[in-house]
C-alpha cells in the first residue's frame, strides 16, 4: 500500500535520526520516527518512506495526503462529515518545527488536497491561515485541482440525518427545539446572555470516537533532528456551516518545535481548542516533562471542566519518545520507527475512567 495516495487527517511527528541506531547518538543524529492519530497505517507508511529520503515536512504532507485520498474513515478528505447543508468542508494545517512557520487552509469547499493547500499558505504567503471559498481560489491559482467534495456517501449521510429530524444537532438556545426539529432556527430570548449557555456547551453524545475517528494528526522527526506536524480533517458531522476544526488552529490541533517535540490532537475540537492543548504539551515537555506526563496533564486540564469530553492527545519528543492520552474515547495511534518499520498500532488506555454521562 506504500505509495498509494490516501486522504487522511494525520498529525505526524517525525524525529530525524539515524535509522541504524535505536537512540540519539553523540553525533547529532536523532532516531527517525513518525506517529499519527488512529490506525491510519497507510499514511504512516507513506510518511515513513518519504522520511528516509526527504525532509520531515514533506513526510508529513505526503503521509497526511494519503488519508485525504483514502478518505480515512470518511473523517478525512472529501465525501465525509456533511454539515447541516450537506456540504463537506476540509480543514488542514502544517507546521515546520525548525522555523516555527505554520500554514492552515480551512473551510475549503472545493480543494481535496487540503494539507498541500496549507503548505502553500505557509510557504508562498506571509500569512498563517486562509479560510473559505477565498482559500479555495488561492489553492486553485497555486495549481491545486478543484472539484466537488460531495459524494453519494456524504449525500446519503446527510439525507438520513435530515429524515431523522436533524439529530444529532449542534445548535442550542434556539427555536424550534434543535433536539427534535430541523431549522431554520432563531435565537431564544435571552440566548445572548450567558446563563444556561456556555458552561453547558457540549457535543452530541457519541459524536466522536471509535466509529468517527475525526482527524489525522501526524508528527515526524528525521535523522537531523528536524520535526514537522500536520493535520487534516473534514470536521464534525452535521456541524453548523462555517465551523472550523481545532485541526486548523496552530497550538490546538497540532504544534511542533524541533528543539522540544510535537503534539497532535483528535476528538471534540470545539471543547479542546479553548485549551490550546498542543501548545501546552510542547511547553510542558520544554520544561522537562515526559511526553506521557505532558499529554496527561494537558488532557487533565480539560477534563476538570468537561469530565465527559471525548478527546485524545499524541506527543513525540525530539529524542523519539512518544505517548498518547485519551478521555472518554477509545484511542489508538500509529508508529513507524527503526524498530517498527512496518508500523505498529498502539492502544492508549485512559488514565481516568469516563464518568457515566446522564
Ligand atoms: C513578507 O515576507 C517577506 C520575507 O520575509 C518580507 O521581505 C516582506 O516584507 C513581507 N511582506 C509584508 C507585507 O510584510
Ligand atoms: C451516485 O448516485 C447516482 C444516482 O443514484 C448514480 O447514478 C451514480 O452512479 C452514483 N455514483 C457513484 C460513484 O456511485
From TrEMBL:
GO terms, biological process: proteolysis
E.C. no: 3.4.19.5
Residues at which substrate binds: 243-246, 266-269
Catalytic reaction equation(s): Cleavage of a beta-linked Asp residue from the N-terminus of a polypeptide
One term under GO cellular component: cytoplasm
Keyword annotations from UniProtKB, A to Z: Autocatalytic cleavage, Hydrolase, Protease, Signal
Site positions for Cleavage: 214-215
InterPro entries, A to Z: Ntn_hydrolases_N (IPR029055), Peptidase_T2 (IPR000246)
Taxonomic superkingdom: Eukaryota
GO molecular function per UniProt: beta-aspartyl-peptidase activity; N4-(beta-N-acetylglucosaminyl)-L-asparaginase activity
Pfam families: Asparaginase_2
UniProt keyword Protease, yes or no: yes
SUPFAM superfamilies given in the database record: N-terminal nucleophile aminohydrolases (Ntn hydrolases)
Segment forming the signal sequence: 1-26
Active site: 215
Quaternary data: Heterotetramer of two alpha and two beta chains arranged as a dimer of alpha/beta heterodimers.
Protein family per UniProt: Belongs to the Ntn-hydrolase family.
Protein name listed in UniProt: beta-aspartyl-peptidase
Amino acid at each position: 500500500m506504500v505509495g498509494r495516495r490516501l486522504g487522511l487527517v494525520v498529525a505526524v511527528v517525525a524525529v530525524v535520526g539515524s535509522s541504524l541506531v535505536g537512540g540519539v547518538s553523540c553525533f547529532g543524529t536523532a532516531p527517525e520516527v513518525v506517529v499519527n492519530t488512529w490506525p491510519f497505517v497507510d499514511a504512516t507508511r507513506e510518511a515513513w518512506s518519504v522520511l528516509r529520503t526527504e525532509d520531515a515536512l514533506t513526510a508529513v504532507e505526503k503521509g497526511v495526503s494519503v488519508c485525504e485520498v483514502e478518505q480515512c474513515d470518511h473523517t478525512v478528505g472529501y465525501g465525509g462529515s456533511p454539515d447541516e447543508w450537506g456540504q463537506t468542508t476540509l480543514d488542514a494545517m502544517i507546521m515546520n518545527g525548525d522555523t516555527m512557520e505554520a500554514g492552515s487552509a480551512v473551510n475549503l469547499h472545493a480543494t481535496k488536497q487540503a494539507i498541500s493547500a496549507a503548505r502553500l499558505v505557509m510557504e508562498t504567503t506571509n500569512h498563517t491561515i486562509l479560510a473559505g471559498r477565498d482559500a479555495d481560489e488561492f489553492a486553485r491559482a497555486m495549481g491545486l485541482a478543484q472539484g466537488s467534495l460531495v459524494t453519494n456517501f456524504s449525500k446519503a449521510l446527510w439525507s438520513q440525518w435530515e429524515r431523522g429530524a436533524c439529530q444529532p444537532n449542534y445548535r442550542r438556545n434556539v427555536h424550534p427545539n434543535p433536539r427534535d426539529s430541523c431549522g431554520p432556527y432563531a435565537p431564544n430570548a435571552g440566548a445572548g446572555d450567558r446563563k444556561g449557555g456556555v458552561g453547558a456547551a457540549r457535543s452530541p453524545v457519541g459524536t466522536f470516537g471509535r466509529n468517527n475517528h475525526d482527524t489525522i494528526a501526524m508528527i515526524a522527526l528525521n535523522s537531523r533532528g528536524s520535526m514537522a506536524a500536520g493535520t487534516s480533517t473534514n470536521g464534525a458531522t452535521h456541524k453548523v456551516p462555517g465551523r472550523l476544526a481545532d485541526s486548523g488552529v496552530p497550538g490546538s490541533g497540532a504544534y511542533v518545535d524541533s528543539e522540544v517535540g510535537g503534539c497532535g490532537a483528535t476528538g471534540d475540537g470545539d471543547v479542546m481548542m479553548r485549551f490550546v492543548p498542543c501548545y501546552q504539551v510542547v511547553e510542558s515537555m520544554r520544561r522537562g516533562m515526559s511526553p506521557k506526563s505532558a499529554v496527561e496533564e494537558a488532557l487533565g486540564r480539560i477534563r476538570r471542566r468537561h469530565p465527559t469530553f471525548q478527546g485524545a492527545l499524541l506527543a513525540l519528543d525530539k529524542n523519539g519518545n512518544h505517548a498518547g492520552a485519551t478521555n472518554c474515547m477509545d484511542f489508538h495511534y500509529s508508529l513507524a520507527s527503526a524498530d517498527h518499520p512496518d508500523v505498529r498500532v498502539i492502544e492508549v488506555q485512559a488514565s481516568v475512567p469516563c464518568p457515566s454521562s446522564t
